[in-house]
Design goal:
This protein is of the alpha/beta class. It contains 13 helices and 15 strands. A hairpin with a 2-residue loop joins strand 12 and strand 13. 50% of the residues are buried.
Length: 370
């Protein structure tokens, strides 16, 4: 198969979809790999690294799309890329369709096969291609939250871990999945007073067993959320429903109950956000203020640490890329349940219930594998 890796052009997205090591694994299996010139520069990989591994370099994004049968990316295509995508393409990337009708409709119109990293799912319901970036985003949420608690950033002027004689910051994490767990580890390690909420009591029992003493667990419901937000310094939204829009667990009217300078980090912003007043921001302009509350809602947080993120992501995606390239997408999807879960759009048909429900679109449980 011919695999093509275009350069990411989303604002401040520095990751790349395949490392030179990944190229080498594909080439030695008989596949052709094209990489757009400078695609890996943001992650620390130069064109010579790719050519040494057996890739061919394309001069621009148009050539990258034209050459490839399977297009492997990190982030969803942006407007400039829509018309470069054809019905002959298999697209393998993060899509987060449920947060964008425009993107969903564009990919339906282009009739491409769209396999989304974020909905590839094992039998135990774990999400192997979302986990590495969730780990990065969860840890970054605390790192960024701590920064924006500083007074020059319009925060409260609180040091997350405090100092002897001064209490540490209070951190509320809503969601006990991978993002929430990693955020709790980081916040606890910095010495903060942490509460992690989830609606799954089994998960809370597990977290209570593994977390240090400065992390407490609490059932997630509207009453408890309204009660706890009143005196928190950093609130992290870490809720995920695979393939679907995130529920709005913090509403606009709740902001009046928060203290001025409280920082909100919505890690679910890729899926529409779990905080009503959040809208996607960029690393270039990451925050804004609503009712005195600092909102940090960067939609590609791991893009700020591209070397770490690229290696973590490609460690997870490469086996699936090899399978799709070796067997062909139809056979791979038919034989591997996790890849069938990843199939969101197929030749103009919506095959993911979360995407269909988000926009009231027809849902094809078994799309035509044309």
């Amino acid at each position: 198969m011919i695999i093509s890796v275009p350069k990411e052009i989303k604002n401040n997205e520095n990751r790349v979809a395949i490392t030179p090591a990944g190229v080498k694994e594909l080439v030695k299996r008989g596949h052709e790999v094209y990489v757009q010139s400078t695609a890996g520069h943001g992650s620390g990989f130069i064109d010579d690294d790719y050519t040494a591994a057996g890739a061919k370099i394309t001069p621009d994004i148009e050539a990258a799309y034209k050459m490839g049968e399977m297009i492997v990316k990190v982030k969803e295509p942006v407007f400039r890329e829509y018309n470069l995508i054809t019905s002959g393409h298999v697209m393998f990337t993060y899509f987060h369709f449920a947060s964008s009708l425009e993107l969903t409709q564009a990919m339906i119109n282009q009739k491409a096969v769209c396999i989304a990293y974020e909905t590839v799912e094992h039998e135990d319901r774990s999400l192997p291609l979302l986990v590495p970036m969730s780990e990065v985003a969860g840890r970054m949420a605390v790192q960024e939250g701590a920064k924006y608690l500083e007074k020059p950033m319009m925060g409260k002027g609180i040091l997350l871990g405090g100092v002897p004689g001064v209490l540490p910051a209070k951190v509320l994490i809503i969601g006990g999945g991978v993002v929430g767990t990693e955020a709790a580890k980081m916040a606890a390690g910095l010495g903060a007073d942490v509460i992690i909420m989830d609606s799954n009591l089994k998960r809370l029992r597990y977290l209570a067993d593994i977390m240090p003493a400065n992390v407490k667990t609490m059932a997630s419901n509207e009453y408890n959320i309204r009660k706890m937000i009143r005196d928190q310094d950093l609130i992290i939204g870490a809720v995920l429903i695979p393939g679907a829009k995130a529920p709005k667990l913090i509403t606009k009217d709740m902001l009046k109950d928060m203290q001025r300078g409280t920082v909100l980090v919505d890690v679910a912003i890729d899926q529409g956000g779990c905080i009503e007043t959040c809208r996607p921001t960029t690393h270039e302009d990451p925050t804004y203020i609503v009712d005195g509350i600092v909102h940090y809602c960067v939609a590609n947080m791991p893009g700020a640490v591209p070397y770490t993120s690229t290696l973590a992501l490609t460690n997870a995606t490469l086996p699936y890329i090899i399978e799709l390239a070796g067997s062909g997408w139809k056979t791979a999807v038919a034989q591997h349940m996790e890849l069938s879960k990843g199939l969101n759009l197929c030749k103009g048909q919506v095959s993911c219930s979360g995407v269909a429900d988000a926009f009231n679109l027809p849902h094809h449980v078994k799309p035509q594998l044309q």
